[in-house]
Amino acid sequence: MQEVLMGKSPDLKSFQNNADAFICSLCPGTAHLQVQYSPGGLIFKAGGSNMQHVTSLSFLLLAYSNYLSHANHVVTCGGKSASPALLKNLARRQVNYILGDNPMKMSYMVGYGARYPQRIHHRGSSLPSVRAHPAHIGCKAGSRYFLSPDPNPNVLVGAVVGGPNTTDAFPDSRPFFQESEPTTYINAPLVGLLAYFAAHP
Known about the structure:
Elements: H1 2-5, H2 13-24, E1 36-37, E2 43-44, H3 50-71, E3 75-77, E4 80-82, H4 84-98, H5 123-126, H6 143-146, H7 177-180, H8 184-199
Antiparallel strand pairs: 1-2, 3-4
Helix pairs in contact: 3-4, 3-8
């Protein structure tokens, strides 16, 4: 994409048109919006763990913003323009939401901030440690810990869970796996976003 925006590959112009259209589909207030936004401003795309969409799309917005900046280009979305600054701010807003700037005042990164998910859907986090429970815990025997209302005994610091629903509500309950399960594919794009925003406050 960088080659196209910098004018080095004019034969790939149709690729740029498709990429621009996709970026427009993420921007609030455009005619062809393909995602929802919660009342608190979180991107919401149906299917699976929502935070995977939030972190991946935010990473894409940030990368595209940087390409646009270098090419001195803006994306035209019907009657609106999506500038590099707009895309960067949209990505930053998603990161801030994840880290606690949201209606629940909850960080969705475990161990970060004053309030974060306590009952994540993660076996290693929800079972007692070997030190606390040296006896073997069989596969089916884990159900009592899974169904317990108690917070997880092992804090999986840095894990980002699936996050809230379309109304910004979060159940903080292990059986609600789409909301409470952490995954590497949620965290991976977030690492890039956090690194960028730490270097460019």
